[in-house]
Amino acid sequence: MIKQDKKKTKRFRTLIKYSIFYGEHFGEVFLSNDKTACYITLDSTKKKTTLKSIFWDLRLIFQCVGLSNVSKVLKREALIKANHPKDGFMHLWYIGVLPSEQGKGKGSLMMKSIIEKSKMANKKVCLETSVERNFGFYTSLGFKEENTIQQLGYALKMYALP
Fold first, then answer.
1. Cβ–Cβ under 8 Å, residues 8 and 2
2. How confident is the model over 100-129, as pLDDT tens digits?
3. Residue 95: is it exposed, middle or buried by C-beta count within 10 angstroms (0-12/13-18/19+)?
4. How far is CA 142 from CA 52, 96, 107, 120, 126, in A?
5. What digits encode the pLDDT tens for the residues 87-100?
């Protein structure tokens, strides 16, 4: 998604700031106490268009994606959205653990927290990934593969936890 040029590190930072904005306003941003693990979720019932969100969308286009990639990004987002549930759900947008901390249960603990919060809210948890090594992680937590989108030039698997 990020335009690949000499400014890609700066563009990546813009993407992260954009993601944090959306998480803080329309979901949740969690950073572990030791700052080695994080996640961002979006609540589909809270997400709405505001002047601030339009500003951040434009900022993302001009500072990160580039005008030449806008149609590709919009197509990808439309395909994903078409496969999301129509009812309210929690969208696991990002989850990550520093490589040096992986395999220590931090990701699993975060996922259990997300799952618990979704149960309390009576909402499904949905996520997408194209990273094969993550498929087993999600299925081990009870997620079911709902769909695979091939039209993107790669396989994007969509998972949900009922």
1. yes
2. 999 999 999 999 999 999 999 999 999 999
3. buried
4. 36, 19, 14, 17, 12
5. 899 999 999 999 99
